[in-house]
Amino acid sequence: xxxxxxxxxxxxxxxxxxxxxxxxxxxxxxxxxxxxxxxxxxxxxxxxxxxxxxxxxxxxxxxxxxxxxxxxxxxxxxxxxxxxxxxxxxxxxxxxxxxxxxxxxxxxxxxxxxxxxxxxxxxxxxxxxxxxxxxxxxxxxxxxxxxxxxxxxxxxxxxxxxxxxxxxxxxxxxxxxxxxxxxxxxxxxxxxxxxxxxxxxxxxxxxxxxxxxxxxxxxxxxxxxxxxxxxxxxxxxxxxxxxxxxxxxxxxxxxxxxxxxxxxxxxxxxxxxxxxxxxxxxxxxxxxxxxxxxxxxxxxxxxxxxxxxxxxxxxxxxxxxxxxxxxxxxxxxxxxxxxxxxxxxxxxxxxxxxxxxxxxxxxxxxxxxxxxxxxxxxxxxxxxxxxxxxxxxxxxxxxxxxxxxxxxxxxxxxxxxxxxxxxxxxxxxxxxxxxxxxxxxxxxxxxxxxxxxxxxxxxxxxxxxxxxxxxxxxxxxxxxxxxxxxxxxxxxxxxxxxxxxxxxxxxxxxxxxxxxxxxxxxxxxxxxxxxxxxxxxxxxxxxxxxxxxxxxxx
Length: 554
Known about the structure:
This protein has 554 residues and is α/β, with parallel strands linked by helices. It contains 20 helices and twelve strands. The protein has two domains: 7-102 and 136-389, Tubulin/FtsZ, GTPase domain (Rossmann fold), CATH 3.40.50; 418-553, no CATH class. It is 43% helix and 10% strand. Helix 1 (13-32) crosses helix 11 (320-335).
């Protein structure tokens, strides 16, 4: 994958963080490869960590739920051992929630200390106001609580929000070498993607302020051209009772109105002719889109910074996770598409994303409904995923069927293992057994009648003897002692049977087998069987073959 301009992704609220985590995983797959080392193999990148993204890609996550922020670093890398790599290209905004525990206390403080700033949007005190407690677990699907928490933090200044964005921008400005490593050239500007939903509390409550903070901070600390692209997840992505339904639609109505007004102002703003002091926070008109904060700061977004927004509604059959993958796919397609000379048409577009949103020259014209302009784009993106489990089941079933059919059907070929046996004997050093002639054996003639059958069986009984491997008889304990005692008992109990005991001289001498119905056969052994029976020993094939030959000869 190639990147042509630095990219800053800002995730607001739970939805923004989920989309950012999906985008981080996809970028690592594309840039770092399956083992995380593809980008490291480039020139002068040996000091980078596995799965470390190039510094021209930065992420900033902001959420009131501190527990969700703490889980993010582990979600974006294959294993916990790679978490340090994720921390090099991601910033996690801490301190957005003031020390005050509950919303009623926070609202009371804002009314006392920042009345001029909050009186236009903070509801008056009443018994019916939400009792959200504690605030660090989220805004509870109340956008007003989300913005009130941000304002409570901004009483002392906007530094908590600016700090992490400034760090990310500093890395982007110095990312020229890494940008060339992924196919880019000279840094001309920064593409900023801000993801949030308009159904919940945190993202809906803080997105408007954060868009202004991002535009101000990136422009001031980079000195480059900035383009901001909001990625908005609509209420249809949330099920009834699980963040969706009527409350989500009410939240979205007010949030989208603010977003559309801001986009219209960005596309068709007039010059501000009235001079004002730094402490004058009054709106110039009813359509003034600047934001003011308790520390006497007023932020105005430069026209042309955010000329459109992308709205994502959930189509039939798709899940919210599918929507996250789709939004990540859109970002990858926008930042990773090369601009040719013909496509630029003389325009100095900093990326394909810049060119894509600027092709429509009528964004400042009135919409067909007569309400607002045509600045916002609806987006429908399909992210194709591979159903690994389903495919594995299909392939496994096919292989199992073919295996069963192969086993059940008769094979006309005759299987022969003689080549394998010959190879084994040759490598074992006992290959002469292949050329040894077999013993002469005369099959007895069939007998008829009870007398002849009885006589034949008696002759066969007399000719049969019981052979015993006596190589272990010298072992003083364990199976050596067991074999000695068992053999002595057999010799005494089966006096009418003939026993033949094979073994080396030392083993047979230790057994002291003195019985009329036993024959002793001495067999030379290369290694003492008592030593060969140890944990590290073994009986050689030559010794085993000598025992076999002795039995055949007897």
